[in-house]
Amino acid sequence: MTRINDHYLKLKASYLFADIGKRIKAFQEANPTAKLIRLGIGDVTQPLAPAIVKAMHEAVDDMARAETFKGYGPDAGYDFLVEKIVAHDYGARGVKIATDEIVVSDGTKQDSGNIQEIFAIDSVVALTDPVYPVYVDSNVMAGRTGEVDDSGRYAGLVYLKCTADNGFAAPLPDRHADLVYLCYPNNPTGAVLTRAAMQKWVDWARAEHAVILFDAAYEGYIRDAEIPHSIYEIEGARECAIEFRSYSKAAGFTGVRCAYTVVPKELRGRDAKGQPVSLNALWLRRMTTKYNAAPYIVQKAAAAAYTDEGRKQTRAQIDFYMENARIIREGLEAMGLTVYGGRNAPHIWGKTPPGLGSWDFFDKLLNEAHVVSTPGAGFGPAGEGYLRLTGFGSRANTEEAVERIRTKLAR
Fold first, then answer.
1. How far apart are CA 137 and CA 132, in angstroms?
2. How many CB atoms lie within 10 A of CB 52?
3. Average pLDDT value for residue range 337-344
4. What is the pLDDT of residues 141-194, one digit of tens each?
5. 0.70 exceeded by the pTM?
């Protein structure tokens, strides 16, 4: 009988959103006529922007003609997209990124899970608590974490506890770490890092010869002009940071799939002999071996998001979701709940009512208000006592969900 990868057995029973899915299915089977409002998973609901749809139609037409047909694309992405990334996402903010430091893919979830493959198995990994589950699970699968304890923490990971007391900003580790996962604007708490906080992280990483894995999937939702959109706005970050960007929330691509990763050429790891090795080269090698780049049609769609028309339309969608976040935040606050986030991110991180744990409150909202949320405990032990809601619903559903919750909590 073929031997399995035993590290998979160290994973918790199932992925957080799979657990939620099972509870929803059981509820729907028991209540087939109930109207559920889903404000849990961060899936967009607005249709693709017209400029993006137009570009996709044109790209489909290209694929229908022999003279414009495209087969395998460039390993790291088409120039027509990569050059726009360089100009708009970085150049416009005074950040210099070269085209050969970018690798286009089909999602930040995949990239943030796959990046660990280019690092040694004995690398010490630090991550926030609460945390986006992929960062944890991908390292469990690789064999870096050891066993999980009764609290849900893995013995081999360094946990950076993010609480209301520290503004959900990750504190520096109290020991050495080789890799640190940071996600800001944060999923799930909606918190952001100030420029000074980012500088502390960069200074620490350079001193420790560590690599920051910076997930900036929600940067498009930042409203505060003082908050950096990229870690590369911070001096020294090119020597210690890899950045992940996504079109899923910025342009509504959750069902289209396109993202990219930036690995600066200054960034180095070391081999078994202690010699420096380019992480840029390793990541490109990994991706060209296991991946054939996002489809031409998808990359043409992503490029359209940078046109004047595309930027205006996608900005309007982001504004729409942020207005939803405001409605949820202010609605919950009016009910007397303590709420965080929803100002520079589409996520609302609410403290559960006294006497209710995260899953208890999740079940209450599901069974009584017919509203789907995400229990904070699913993001790690420090998430217990919190619940995440997102602003990605329709306006009518968002307003109705708030009213349903108000009605049920008032009883």
1. 9
2. 26
3. 97
4. 999 999 999 888 999 999 999 999 999 999 999 999 999 999 999 999 999 999
5. yes
395-409: pLDDT as tens digits: 999 999 999 999 988
What is the per-residue pLDDT for 16?
77
Burial of 353 (0-12, 13-18, 19+ CB in 10 A): middle
The pLDDT value given to residue 19: 82
> No. of H helices and E strands in the chain?
11, 15
Is 341 in contact with 383 (CB distance < 8 Å)? no
Task: Give the integer Cα–Cα distance in Å for 116 and 73.
Answer: 25
Strands annotated E in 122-186: 125-129, 157-161, 179-183
Phi-psi region for residue 293, left (φ > 0), alpha (ψ -120 to 50) or beta?
left
Task: Report, in this order, helix, strand and coil percent for the chain, each rounded to 5.
Answer: 45, 15, 40
Cα separation values, 387 from 146, 165, 188, 221, Å: 28, 17, 9, 20
Tell me if 41 sits within 8 A of 16, measured CB to CB: no
Q: How crowded is residue 91: how many other Cβ atoms within 10 Å of its Cβ?
A: 14
What does the DSSP 8-state code read for residue 243? E
